[in-house]
Each structure stands twice: as structure tokens, then as C-alpha cells.
């Protein structure tokens, strides 16, 4: 992953690099409004094209939240060795119905747990930002070895 802005240990990812990062993963966190509070929930997802995140859910707080207030944020992060990467998107969620919901048949997304999830939700991404960080975790290197 090559960054396009470098500021010491913090690297700003180009938007296409951020999309590539999202495409290569399948688990993230959805932040949504629910009855005047902000909630966050883990979801598995897939990327559709260059502007949508798709997930499947069932009746419950996520669905109620995104139908009550479609403004959402979504975040995926990863730590590998001494590098951390985080991509955050902001957008608007909406339920896909009818023929439009069949997009899930073309995407690598299925429920991770055996529970009935039949509601397809798309997040239309309005903003995407990604960063990677060169980690300095001296406590990992200063641990005495037996």
C-alpha cells in the first residue's frame, strides 16, 4: 500500500487506496443514530462498485436506526506488525428492495452466523478517508525475553 501524503509516521491514503483496502476486507463497524444516541455495531459487508457498501441485516436496532436516520459512518481498521490502517466512510443508508436487493447474489456477502437476515442495506458513500500509521510501541520491544 503506497500512500500519497506523508507526514512522519502518519500517511494519508488516496481515495482509491481506501476503496482497495475496503474491498480486501469483510468486517467493519457501522455507526448509526438510534433514539437520540449514536450506536456502533459490527457488520460483515461487501463493496459494490466505487460508491456503495452493502450489508444484510434483520429486524432490530441497526435496521430501525438506519431507517429512522439514514446518516451513518462506517469504519474498517487493521493492525499488522508495526503498521495500523483505518478507513472511515460517511454516507446515507437505505434499504434495497425488489430486484435491486438481488445485488447480494453478485457480491461475496453472506451472514456469518446462522440467523435469518433478509434485509439488504446499501450505504451510498459521500466521503471516504484513510490513514495508515507507523506504530511505535516500545512496550512490545522492551519485553524481557526468557
Features:
146 residues, mainly beta, nine-stranded antiparallel beta sheet, 3 helices, 9 strands, 14% helix, 49% strand
Describe the protein.
With 146 residues, the chain is mostly beta strands. It contains three helices and nine strands; from the N terminus they run ββαββββαβββα. Strands 1, 2, 3, 4, 5, 6, 7, 8 and 9 form a nine-stranded antiparallel β-sheet that branches. Strand 1 and strand 2 (10-13) form a beta hairpin.
In brief:
14% of the residues lie in helices and 49% in strands. The protein is mainly β and 146 residues long. The mean pLDDT is 89.
* Shape annotation: elongated
> Helix fraction?
10-25%
Number of strands: 9
N-to-C series of helices and strands: EEHEEEEHEEEH
Average pLDDT rating: 89
What distance lies between the first and last C-alpha atoms, to the nearest angstrom?
Answer: 35 Å
Topology, pairings included?
Blueprint: E1 5-7, E2 10-13, H1 15-23, E3 27-34, E4 37-44, E5 46-48, E6 52-57, H2 61-68, E7 71-80, E8 83-96, E9 119-134, H3 138-141
Antiparallel strand pairs: 1-2, 2-9, 3-4, 3-7, 5-6, 6-9, 7-8, 8-9
Amino acid at each position: 500500500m503506497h500512500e500519497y501524503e506523508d507526514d512522519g509516521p502518519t500517511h494519508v491514503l488516496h481515495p482509491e487506496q481506501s476503496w482497495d483496502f475496503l474491498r480486501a476486507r469483510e468486517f467493519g463497524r457501522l455507526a448509526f443514530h438510534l433514539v437520540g444516541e449514536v450506536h456502533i455495531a459490527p457488520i460483515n459487508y461487501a463493496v459494490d462498485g466505487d460508491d456503495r457498501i452493502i450489508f444484510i441485516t434483520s429486524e432490530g436496532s441497526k435496521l430501525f436506526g438506519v431507517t429512522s436516520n439514514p446518516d451513518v459512518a462506517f469504519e474498517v481498521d487493521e493492525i499488522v506488525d508495526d503498521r495500523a490502517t483505518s478507513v472511515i466512510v460517511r454516507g446515507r443508508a437505505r434499504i434495497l428492495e425488489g430486484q435491486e436487493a438481488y445485488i447480494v447474489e453478485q457480491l461475496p456477502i453472506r451472514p456469518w452466523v446462522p440467523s435469518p437476515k433478509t434485509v439488504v442495506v446499501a450505504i451510498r458513500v459521500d466521503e471516504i478517508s484513510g490513514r495508515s500509521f507507523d506504530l511505535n510501541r516500545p512496550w512490545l520491544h522492551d519485553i524481557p525475553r526468557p
